[in-house]
């Protein structure tokens, strides 16, 4: 008898997989920008100073969208100081990360990089130390036609055509006491509504993301969402979510169940948003922009921003090095996001390069893939079309952090051409067999890839990353893992503590 059963049917559908689900994030933090995406003089850099090796890995990663310029950084940012001739720009002290920002990369440099690399930009405005006028001016600078003050300034800086930025964040984590310009829910809700209104008067085609709680552990969680949306419901399109996960005190079982915590978080934010809609008798549905998520050893490795000394020259901050175990958890978090495709059209893995990132670099040296690179790139490549409403029946185990959780999780997508992407996590410490029930449909698994957890301490450097990849990441021989087939059912074997992606076909019969 199998250990778990996964039911797949072409008529059971969650929603369309929005390509923006595979977004990422570049903040002026540590080495995300300088010696990350941008390093003039590097042997791979293009004529604009951006590293070609990083751009190539970004494309391989499958990133569809990049959020910029923060993050906490945005709440102390004067965007006007980082446009125009670079030689005339003045450095400033970023209070969020206590770093002297040289202002060598600003709005134009980032947006032109995104355009060259074919990724959609997601811009954030400063609602911490600034407000309505600066936010509206930035939209005009980016999207305005010739003949107005800020659009003409952009043209004077050498960019004639509008950038056409469509997705905008109304600040960042404004419920957090760590945020420069922190506000309570009423203060922020009123400001976000006025800023968003002005921004849409400049360009009615834009979509807006309002700040939700910065985590489910915030004491104001739930009430914050309700209050903020009471001011902004009719104006905004998305509400943001942020969540980071880590192994604490050797509690491997809870860490492997991080996807369940993310699932509950999404359900609660959706419920809060829908409650506001119900009170307003509105048919509109606010969707989720999960624009910061990842494994981040926040509790155990990061000393806290207030303990950082003032630094210059792109200091090494929050450069977590990842293991095979971390990569399995990232794969499971992707399973959760796909299973909420109907309400989560936008997401951003935080961040892209060096700072808790799937891509690492050395100044003047090489760029390489962290173990977390592989499940993200594979999911971005295989997950297309429609996310199925997958039903999983599996045994459960108890965790200290999340209570009872399933040992097996799964998500599946089907393209219009019948191509299947199937993503399965085995959280247990033993090999399991899983029945894939597909009554009324023909299923064939043709290729597979697997990440297994390890027990080694992660070490910085490309050699260790390659060692982990060799030990933990592999192509799956589908003929070896498919251990039984009968009409309407296929049985597969999953390795202990593993995340597996299958490609194949799936069609009604």
Automatic annotation (TrEMBL):
Residues 291-498 form the Alpha-L-arabinofuranosidase C-terminal domain. GO terms for biological process: L-arabinose metabolic process; polysaccharide catabolic process. The keyword Transmembrane does not apply. GO terms for molecular function: alpha-L-arabinofuranosidase activity. Keywords: Carbohydrate metabolism, Glycosidase, Hydrolase. It comes from the Bacteria. SUPFAM superfamilies: (Trans)glycosidases, Glycosyl hydrolase domain. Belongs to the glycosyl hydrolase 51 family. This is non-reducing end alpha-L-arabinofuranosidase. It comes from Isoptericola jiangsuensis. The lineage of its organism: Bacteria, Bacillati, Actinomycetota, Actinomycetes, Micrococcales.
């Amino acid at each position: 008898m199998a250990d778990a059963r996964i039911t797949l049917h072409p008529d059971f559908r969650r929603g369309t997989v929005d390509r923006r689900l595979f977004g990422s994030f570049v903040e002026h933090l540590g080495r995300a920008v300088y010696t990350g995406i941008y390093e003039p003089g590097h042997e791979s850099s293009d004529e604009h100073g951006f590293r070609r090796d990083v751009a190539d890995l970004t494309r391989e990663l499958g990133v569809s969208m990049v959020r910029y310029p923060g993050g906490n950084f945005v709440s102390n940012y004067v965007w006007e100081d980082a446009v125009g001739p670079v030689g005339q720009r003045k450095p400033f002290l970023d209070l969020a990360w206590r770093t002297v920002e040289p202002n060598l990369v600003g709005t134009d440099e980032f947006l032109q990089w995104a355009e060259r690399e074919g990724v959609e930009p997601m811009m954030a405005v400063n609602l911490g130390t600034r407000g309505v006028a600066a936010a509206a001016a930035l939209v005009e600078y980016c999207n305005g036609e010739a003949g107005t003050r800020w659009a003409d300034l952009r043209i004077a800086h050498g960019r004639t055509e509008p950038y056409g930025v469509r997705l905008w964040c109304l600040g960042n984590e404004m419920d957090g006491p760590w945020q420069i310009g922190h506000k309570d829910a009423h203060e922020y809700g009123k400001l976000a509504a006025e800023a968003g209104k002005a921004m849409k008067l400049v360009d009615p085609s834009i979509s807006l993301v309002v700040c939700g709680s910065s985590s489910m552990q915030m004491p104001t969680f739930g009430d914050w969402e309700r209050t903020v949306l009471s001011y902004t419901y009719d104006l905004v399109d998305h509400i943001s979510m942020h969540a980071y996960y880590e192994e604490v005190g050797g509690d491997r079982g809870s860490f492997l169940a991080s996807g369940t915590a993310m699932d509950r978080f999404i359900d609660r934010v959706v419920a809060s948003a829908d409650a506001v809609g119900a009170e307003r008798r509105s048919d509109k549905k606010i969707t989720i922009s999960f624009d910061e998520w990842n494994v981040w050893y926040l509790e155990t490795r990061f000393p806290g921003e207030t303990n950082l000394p003032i630094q210059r020259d792109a200091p090494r901050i929050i450069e977590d090095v990842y293991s095979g175990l971390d990569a399995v958890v990232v794969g499971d978090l992707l399973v959760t996001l796909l299973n909420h495709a109907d309400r989560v059209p936008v997401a951003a893995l935080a961040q892209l390069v060096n700072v808790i990132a799937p891509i690492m670099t050395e100044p003047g040296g090489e760029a390489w893939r962290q173990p977390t690179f592989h499940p993200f790139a594979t999911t971005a490549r295989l997950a297309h079309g429609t996310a199925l409403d997958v039903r999983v029946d599996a045994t459960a185990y108890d965790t200290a952090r999340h209570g009872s959780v399933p040992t097996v999780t799964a998500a599946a997508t089907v393209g219009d051409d019948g191509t299947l992407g199937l993503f399965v996590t085995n959280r247990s410490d033993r090999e399991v067999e899983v029945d894939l029930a597909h009554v009324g449909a023909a299923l064939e698994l043709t290729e597979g890839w697997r990440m297994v957890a390890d027990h080694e301490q992660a070490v910085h450097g490309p050699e260790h990353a390659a060692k982990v990849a060799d030990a933990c990441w592999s192509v799956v021989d589908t003929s070896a893992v498919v251990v039984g087939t009968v009409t309407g059912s296929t049985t597969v074997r999953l390795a202990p503590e593993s995340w597996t992606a299958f490609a194949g076909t799936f069609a009604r019969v």
